[in-house]
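Reopening this ticket.

The earlier resolution said the output was attached, but the attachment link was broken on my side. Pasting everything inline this time so it's all in one place.
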Amino acid sequence: MSMAEANWYVVHTYSGYENKVKANIEKTIENRHLEEEILEVRVPMQDVMEMKNGARRTVQKKMFPGYVLINMIMNDDTWYVVRNTRGVTGFVGPGSKPVPLTEAEMKPLGIKIENMTVDFTEGDTIAVVAGVWKDTIGVVQRIDYNKQVATINVELFGRETPVEISFAEVRKM
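Inline output:
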């Protein structure tokens, strides 16, 4: 197993195909068992206030029509799978060479903002599947939905220390 790092990449899609692309990639991940390599496919949404017939209502709109964000380990297989998904026109990057998003770029993209639903709660045991604490197993002490992090205790220098781990980096045991 290579210690390759998963990064967020952006793919360009035909307009209106974002959710279809997401569904298609997710189906391929399942069929080809690529769960370890393509971790998440996301179409960032935002709440927008709309006036309709004199009434205000909040609707969910795509933040970036024509784009899909993918958290993946870039290799020949994953590149090929994503690139050849119906509706995908290519990766975003110079000369269509996929370039991962930096942390600074991810913030306004709603990677941190958009609420991820999690299937664990305080007291559950979770495994860290990415990042600095990869392969650590811990019990959830606290969940912070605003920051999108779970706090677990890890053993550090012989004593329990609470660390915050991004929702994107954990899986329920």
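Reporter confirms the inline version is readable. Residues 122 and 140 are 5 Å apart (CA to CA). The longest helix spans residues 18-32.
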